[in-house]
Design a protein that fits this description.
The chain is built from 16 helices and 14 strands. The protein is of the alpha/beta class. Strand 3, helix 3 and strand 4 form a beta-alpha-beta unit. Helix 2 packs parallel to helix 3.
Length: about 375
């Protein structure tokens, strides 16, 4: 059952539409003009609005404009007479899902309603899924080092500035990159990750920029590279300190000119990509030893975010451990376990050389091997 609003100045048409919709067991409300309809849209959450174009006080296009202005997410189907088809098309350009022409064809009405409600449900499911994903990848912690990281993300994410994330393995550099993307204007675009350390140096250029068919022995077909796949979004270059010097030169050109060329090709392709990079290495030392280009470093490091090691934020361990207990319970489909106070104290006393990644593995081990309440003795035995 959907909640639907009909905005129509003709009482007979309203009555017909209401009868049809209520037969389908939808919750239907009515408004006799645009002003009344807009007030109802502001006051209540509707899955769909059927809105006439020509109405007194406020016409359908004005309703659409005001709805867009205040950020109401309701899907619209505009109702149009023969003489207002061009206006109906204009309404679709303004964001309406579709239009229905008077007099109504019942078959077309049913199909349009079903498609519009399918879209509404899809949007709801997508928002729910994104909330779940955001919760799973939440940045947990209240310590001063992590608060500083969160503040930097809030300031830098809405810009298009390039970001270099520095920190030890397992400290959460990928999580920082994800939040820079999620809080940016590019959040609806893709986040494409490339682990530069995991790709052989002879293949990294093909991975980043793509290749043309026949450009090398195993290039049996054209391949689109990560720069192109990240169009309109964010490209995350993880472990960039392990990238070959030849690939670094091409990345530098792509950043300078916003253009790439596929391996074996000669066509320049314009790309609109924000680059976020991460490394566990001291790139200034790598520059001194001629393993990293200084000009690329300066291109990448408009903003540098330093992710603290877990040993530098041990106050966050109780919060992190509780989050991992929740995540693991969800994954296993089991009841969430708990730590007693002494167990948390024992975790805080440990030297976490593997950082958050190690803590997560330890918590999972304790969930499997410990009781419903994990004790200090469990930590001593299994850590």
């Amino acid at each position: 059952m959907a909640k639907i609003l009909i905005i129509e100045d003709d009482a007979r048409i309203r009555a017909v539409l209401k009868e049809i919709l209520e037969e389908k067991e939808h919750d239907v409300q009515e408004a006799a003009d645009g002003q009344e309809g807009f007030k109802k849209l502001e006051q209540g959450s509707f899955d769909l609005c059927l809105c006439d174009i020509k109405m007194p006080k406020m016409d359908g296009l004005e309703v659409l404009d005001k709805v867009k202005e205040v950020g109401i997410a309701t899907n619209f189907i505009v109702i149009s007479a023969h003489g207002t088809i061009d206006v109906a098309v204009e309404a679709v350009k303004k964001g309406a899902f579709d239009f229905l022409q008077k007099p109504f064809d019942l078959g077309r009405l049913e199909i349009t309603l079903r498609n519009a409600l399918d879209k509404t449900n899809l949007v709801k499911e997508t928002k729910t899924l994104r909330k779940k994903i955001s919760k799973k990848f939440d940045m947990v912690g209240d310590s001063e080092p992590i608060r500083q990281v969160k503040e930097m993300i809030e300031k830098v994410a809405p810009t298009d500035a390039r970001v270099l994330i520095n920190g030890p393995n397992g400290a959460g550099k990928e999580l920082v990159a994800r939040w820079v993307h999620e809080k940016s204007k590019r959040a609806d675009g893709p986040l494409i990750e490339v682990n530069c350390a995991a790709i052989p140096s002879e293949l990294i250029e093909s991975e980043l920029f793509g290749h043309e068919k026949g450009s090398f022995t195993s290039a049996v077909k054209q391949r689109i590279g990560k720069f192109e796949l990240a169009e309109g979004g964010t490209l995350f270059l993880d472990e960039i300190g392990d990238m070959s010097l030849s690939a670094q030169a091409k990345v530098l050109r792509a950043l300078q000119e916003s253009k790439i060329t596929r391996v074996g090709g000669d066509k320049e392709i314009t790309v609109n990509v924000r680059v976020v990079a991460a490394t566990n290495k001291d790139l200034r030392k790598e520059i001194e030893e001629h393993r990293f280009r200084e000009d690329l470093f300066h291109r990448l490091s408009v903003i540098i975010i330093k992710v603290p090691a877990l040993n530098d934020r041990k106050d966050d361990i109780p919060l992190l451990a509780d989050k991992f207990l929740h995540d693991i319970a969800d994954e296993y489909g089991a009841k969430k376990k708990s730590f007693d106070a002494a167990a948390l104290t024992a975790l805080q006393a440990h030297n976490w050389t593997g950082n958050i990644r190690e803590l997560r593995n330890v918590v999972e081990r304790l969930v499997i091997m410990g009781g419903d309440e994990i004790t200090a003795e469990d930590v001593k035995r299994y850590l």
